[in-house]
Amino acid sequence: MIQIQSPYLWASHTAETIMERTPRLYEANGYHGKWSYDYGVILKGFELLWKVTGESKYAAYIRDNMDYFIQNDGSIRGYQQDEHNIDHLNNGKLLFGLYQMTGDTKYKQAASHLRQQLRTHPRTSEGAFWHKQVYPYQIWLDGLYMGAPFYLEYMLHFEQEEEQDLDDVTRQFMLCAEHNLDKQTGLLYHAWDEQRVQAWSDPVTGQSPNFWGRSMGWFVMALVDVLELLPQTHPDRLKLIDILNDTMSALRNFQDAPSGVWYQVINEGTRKGNYLEASASSMIVYAMAKGIRLGLLQDGTWLKTLEHAYAGLISEFVMETKEGWVNLYKNCQVAGLGGEPRRDGTYAYYISEPIITNDQKGLGAFLLACTEYEYMLNQKM
Fold first, then answer.
1. What is the DSSP letter of 1?
2. Is the dihedral of CA 52, 54, 57, 62 positive or negative?
3. Angstrom distance (rounded) from CA 181 to CA 192
4. Could you give the percent of the chain with pLDDT greater than 70?
5. Burial 256-293 (b: 16+ CB within 10 A, else e)
6. Residues annotated as part of the active site
7. What are 215-243's pLDDT values in tens digits?
8. In angstroms, rounded to a whole number, what is the distance separating the alpha carbons of residues 327 and 358?
9. b/e code 142-161 from CB counts within 10 Å (16+ = b)
10. Secondary structure string (H, E, C) spanning 110-173
11. Nearest-angstrom CA–CA distance, 222 and 20
């Protein structure tokens, strides 16, 4: 039975559960040592909890899991740079903290390999990164979280000021907001196809047909993470803050009133087959809590919205096992567009993907949300 003494009750409880249940994330069901972006979501939660508590066991968990992949020469087990997959950058966010903590140059060298990918990563005609080489000319909301915070942090840590192109980071958000936005609802569609050739893309707008909860979560998490790092003097900073406020306000309009959380297909509410979804809700709560902490969401009503949403995370999605572990229910396992005919972006598609317990993306987002929220509470004490 886990005994938690920390003031970070749910954050610590979740972290202890993850460490006991999956000491090696890469050996969990279905991963088989694959360099998967899922680990980065979990480990960013551990990194945040490590920063606010100072507990070295959380740093050790990050290092143990990353060292399976990061070789002594800085090469990365299972990583193929020429795949040009933006998802592959996400785990790289942990390398900065590991390098700072240990001084071991293998982490800096590994980060440089990931940075090199962006030097040759294919782009749309306006300069937005393709989501993957196998998904040409497409902007997916997911990709902003996978790539932009890593890209910005690498430049700030390891490149001279004259080498940095911070505008290239902010450009990714502005192009995404321009092309993926639905002006009627203020929500962003999951993806956009510049060439309008994908089966899921609207022939006029190029947009996919629905608002997937987790893709919206990826986008707002990316915004707050980048705004935390982006210099106050950057000319695009206010534009990104406006995008964050507009997007979060749109999401608040579709918050489920009874539960406080969000649906798998954000705007379809109680339509048959739709369900309240844990990973998206956790991501939105994290972005909201961090946005409040950083002074980016300044409207005084946000705190009440956050409190309702956080309570909903616990009551709607969390149960404890007989061992005292945290179980996080109602996670969409995966959803994407293209690659196979059924991934067509329809409502029927999004509700057809498996719903699982303790998905790593969901647990990582939940850990981030709990840590941000409980940090706010502890600051008030």
1. -
2. positive
3. 10
4. 98
5. beebbbbbbbbbbeeeeebebbbbbbbbbbbbbbbbbb
6. 142
7. 999 999 999 999 999 999 999 999 999 99
8. 6
9. bbbbbbbbbbbbbbeeeeee
10. HHHHHHHHHHHCCECCCCCECCECCECCEEEHHHHHHHHHHHHHHHHHHCCCCCCCHHHHHHHH
11. 29
**DSSP one-letter string for 190-215:** SEEETTS-STTS-TTT-B-S--BHHH
Q: φ and ψ at 260, to 5 degrees? A: 90, 0
Average pLDDT over residues 150-163: 96
Kindly give the pairing relationship between strand 191-193 and strand 326-328: unpaired
Query: What tokens does 50 get?
Result: 């490590």
Global model pTM greater than 0.90: yes
Q: Where are the alpha helices (DSSP H) in 195-330?
A: 213-229, 237-253, 278-293, 302-317
- Cα distances from 117 to residues 83, 120, 299, 309, in angstroms, run 9, 6, 39, 37
Residue with tokens 């996919």: 208
